[in-house]
Specification:
The protein is mainly β. It contains no helices and 15 strands. β1 and β2 form a beta hairpin. The radius of gyration is 14 Å and the shape is globular.
């Protein structure tokens, strides 16, 4: 099941039919306005859009450091990206069962790692709720474990 996530100043973040991510009138404190190219393992510190190539492990910041912060990660080639929360932060969770490559129920889709399957153009969107990271949208196959 594909889901489109859209953000507008009027409605905030919401789901609609289709697939992908649409950002309109995006507040500057939630995400930076430019795309950052990631070509090495690194710790992400600023919400924004990250274009990743190669097999990479990215560490998300503490969700308390950027409540409402949105991280969009796209794998540009046929390699895997793994996202881990910062040390001491324990949770990445999801709003939906659809498309995740675990057979668990939604209640147990909370974990410490999110990994792409390794196909080109896989992407995901995570938002900080101020306590944990929430997976709000993805394209391709991702494993939460």
């Amino acid at each position: 099941m594909a889901v489109k996530v859209r953000y507008t100043n009027e409605k905030g973040l919401f789901h609609e039919g289709g697939e992908g991510v649409v950002l309109k009138s995006f507040p500057s404190h939630i995400a930076s306005g430019s795309v950052k190219v990631v070509a090495a393992n690194e710790s992400l510190t600023v919400p924004g859009v990250y274009s990743v190539s190669g097999n990479r492990t990215l560490t998300l910041p503490e969700p308390t450091s950027c409540p409402g912060g949105l991280f969009v990660v796209q794998q540009t080639d046929a390699n895997a990206t793994t996202l881990n929360p910062a040390q001491g932060c324990t949770l990445i969770s999801t709003f939906s069962d659809a498309g995740l490559s675990t057979g668990a129920t939604r209640a147990s889709k909370c974990a410490n790692s999110l990994a792409s399957a390794g196909a080109a153009n896989e992407s995901c969107v995570l938002v900080s709720d101020g306590i944990n990271w929430q997976l709000v949208a993805f394209r391709g196959t991702w494993t939460i474990s």
